[in-house]
Write a structure and sequence with these properties.
The structure is a homotetramer of 283-residue chains.
Chain A: E1 2-22, E2 27-40, H1 43-48, H2 57-70, H3 76-90, E3 94-104, E4 106-111, E5 114-122, E6 127-135, E7 140-153, E8 178-188, H4 195-212, H5 218-232, E9 236-242, E10 248-250, E11 264-267, E12 272-282
Antiparallel strand pairs in A: 1-2, 2-3, 3-6, 4-5, 6-7, 7-8, 8-9, 9-12, 10-11
Chain lengths: 283, 283, 283, 283
Amino acid sequence: MSVVLGENRYGKSRVRLLKVTREEDAHRVTEWNVEVWLEGKFSECFQHGDNSRILPTDTMKNTVYSLARSSDAVSMESFAQELVSHFIDTNPNADKAGARIVATGWKHLAAGEKQFTTAFTHHGEKHDTAVMTLSSTGDYASSSGFEDLWLLKTAHSSFAGYLKDRLTTLKETDDRLLGTLAKAQWKYNSTGLDFNASRLRTEAALIEAFAVHHSLSVQQTLYAMAQAALEAVSELAEVHLSLPNKHCNLVDLAPFGQDNPNQIFVPTDEPHGSIEASVRRTN
Amino acid sequence: MSVVLGENRYGKSRVRLLKVTREEDAHRVTEWNVEVWLEGKFSECFQHGDNSRILPTDTMKNTVYSLARSSDAVSMESFAQELVSHFIDTNPNADKAGARIVATGWKHLAAGEKQFTTAFTHHGEKHDTAVMTLSSTGDYASSSGFEDLWLLKTAHSSFAGYLKDRLTTLKETDDRLLGTLAKAQWKYNSTGLDFNASRLRTEAALIEAFAVHHSLSVQQTLYAMAQAALEAVSELAEVHLSLPNKHCNLVDLAPFGQDNPNQIFVPTDEPHGSIEASVRRTN
Amino acid sequence: MSVVLGENRYGKSRVRLLKVTREEDAHRVTEWNVEVWLEGKFSECFQHGDNSRILPTDTMKNTVYSLARSSDAVSMESFAQELVSHFIDTNPNADKAGARIVATGWKHLAAGEKQFTTAFTHHGEKHDTAVMTLSSTGDYASSSGFEDLWLLKTAHSSFAGYLKDRLTTLKETDDRLLGTLAKAQWKYNSTGLDFNASRLRTEAALIEAFAVHHSLSVQQTLYAMAQAALEAVSELAEVHLSLPNKHCNLVDLAPFGQDNPNQIFVPTDEPHGSIEASVRRTN
Amino acid sequence: MSVVLGENRYGKSRVRLLKVTREEDAHRVTEWNVEVWLEGKFSECFQHGDNSRILPTDTMKNTVYSLARSSDAVSMESFAQELVSHFIDTNPNADKAGARIVATGWKHLAAGEKQFTTAFTHHGEKHDTAVMTLSSTGDYASSSGFEDLWLLKTAHSSFAGYLKDRLTTLKETDDRLLGTLAKAQWKYNSTGLDFNASRLRTEAALIEAFAVHHSLSVQQTLYAMAQAALEAVSELAEVHLSLPNKHCNLVDLAPFGQDNPNQIFVPTDEPHGSIEASVRRTN
């Protein structure tokens, strides 16, 4: 019998970095959770324990902190690019280097009208994300996105006219709650962008489309959101959305002699619908 | 040998409730996670399986939803009061009824300048809390608070002059990051309050004190926060704060020939300091 | 207005410790998550930032590791006792010192009949616990227990004859599943025990009683478990059990023309019943 | 501008199923968390809200429970096959149907020598997994595996001779702890297998190889484990392993005048190494 090494990668995960920028008028805080990895000609290591081509993952972690100190990057995408460039430049045995960054947003604390310039709280639950890979032949691939964004519509959402088989018990509805914990990932069709500006415009388009859409299904709302982003942000090539349907079930109060005109719901975590799709710009 | 039943309670936990109020100009969403319980003369049930005095926890769950429909309560405290009153009124064998509510806040979605009146996202990670108990003799006890509020100071925090023994290796510092995941619980000295208004003023006082305090220790900052709340909100009798010290460690970049002027930190989850205390008003 | 410091404590949490004992025939692994704290005359620190009486929580962490190296303790209880003794002996301003330890169990890896003496996997999900406090006047208080133990009965569990009010919709049953994620805490009536031996006997008594009990309610099963432990282990003074009722709901397959003779269930996490009580020995 | 729907899928996640088999000598409990999904010609739904081809995810959930009642499947793989066959047979617009099952293992409770035939506890933390897809053209693809298996070696693990650059600070070691939370996924080269038997033999080979391997790196141990499984189980075509390096750091006790001969460690969750690879059988 003979066995061979297939696809493989190794690296460091959960490298946490908090950077404080101390400007005159106010401090600024950036928190990133970084993952970096290498793919390449490492079969000698896997098969025979020859470590001579292996950069320790501990060194990869050090690299994140050292580059964070010297870097001028203001976006996750730019910092990820610095990381993968460094690893490809210094590791001749790597065919590809990758970095994935998940941000925790901080904003200045406020109390009433007052804002405090050196005190912070989390911006919310949404985490922005960026992934970048660089091959040894010089090809970059990247995507940007977010995860953990709660969204809820209390109007303009129905679900009816669907396929019914002998196992179907769901009632049709023309007024339901539509709740989701959205995850998005998009690709740009150009380089040298102001990544933070493009991100803000993409998010705004996705959010507005979710809010105003007259939804006949989660699938249709997903498509409408992606279409709106592609229309609003010309540098977008493709948008992938994952919108789990976090059901809010209307409580049946009839046994207690009460009506329930779409007021009292049970939010549930499981089971949940899972709807995901990519929408692409064509020429 | 003889054994006896000691303190006991039973009830229902994680009863999730989402209420939509459909006003003309906008919808409003309230999400509460409710726990209710009874304490009382239930030794026959525990010892002999006599269930005749046992209200099923499933009925307690139904009660939460039924009361939610008929209730006009606009605060967690008021709804908790309705719940415990109902349970004491209808369960002669209960010596005490309790309710604890944890809120998930929702706010209207926004994109740029636009606000959407029927679309929502979570307000943040902070969860407001309220606990209320009522004894069969008519005594109420209650507290209000919050949990899961991230706070971070990037200036005006030092820690020095502490006790040193042979196991002390910590370096003194006059400029450190102070991060915490705050939990607060307070008691009022009067009834018939506008609970939501008192809550907002208490939170604002706690937050402002955290932000402006020149901190010599987490202990001192905790006391300053509680004191500020007691001074600002006359109906407060006592404030209990739990401020775990979520350490942000300065990265040593010297091995790489770099300085680190309080810029690059590693935020950590464990181990963490645990500082908690109550501060009370004296007359 | 005047405010005063009430009850307070500070310490270090989530101090993780893994100890390897390298005996000739096999290695042994102990993993403990330690929390230590002090209570005492610290109002100067809280009120004025005078740190001269404050032992840094970083030093407390160092103490855990240093004592772990020199300690001969084979039980969590004994190690907790060493910790609190050290802190009371060396901190004249402490009125009380406490330690809480949560264990993660490891056992030797096995494949078929083979056991491997230097390779391990987790023992299960149950975590053993121990809490010890020592006051400056020399009084010890301690408890032992466990948490996160899943238990499920598929026979001999009913629930009927309970109180019904106008909000009761639950059906009576003489054959249901009874599932729980048990938490236990017990106190001994003597000192100088072989803590590990007493723990094993207590757990065995609790588990056997759960398994063989003909349950009329969770409350009754809880009492039977505690009573069995008190009967089997003479050094037990009191047992506190928390048995959340993790409902397994029978699926209604009638709409699909199928019966369901207690075979197909939906296990749920929320809502859940919460039943807890203490049972004490009387002389 | 023109946009088009790219890859898409929808289905139901976290469908929890607990099945009790009541045999004469003992009961048996199976707990599965099921995800099912469809891919296909659904662009009308996504683009225009035409739901006429959409089987509700609620119906998919019902299907899981209805099939579970009628099924004779004793392995996750067989039940997954029934599910995807059902969905492809009844949904002409689906190009592909998929099912993923994650098992929670239950075993009979024991106390001392006694085993209890109708009482259970979790088998451990490991979750077995199975994925199956079926295309409308009749092509099956499947994999089996597990996740959440803690493994720890306290001997025969070194890491030295690696690449060093100017950012490398890691010390070489010939005796370290090697801990991981293993995840495995494998594919078979034939059909009609006794899936449960093949699973047991694969797991035993992976575990024994981990335990006995003289490790020069995590990479080498990963390869040795996969190779051992491929050698032991002839129906295996490919094994993919993910072995995060859950570092256990030796505590430096020198500042306290103590040595630490590989006894006292700090187990950590972050950062962690991430090593993953596929190993395949050739001809």
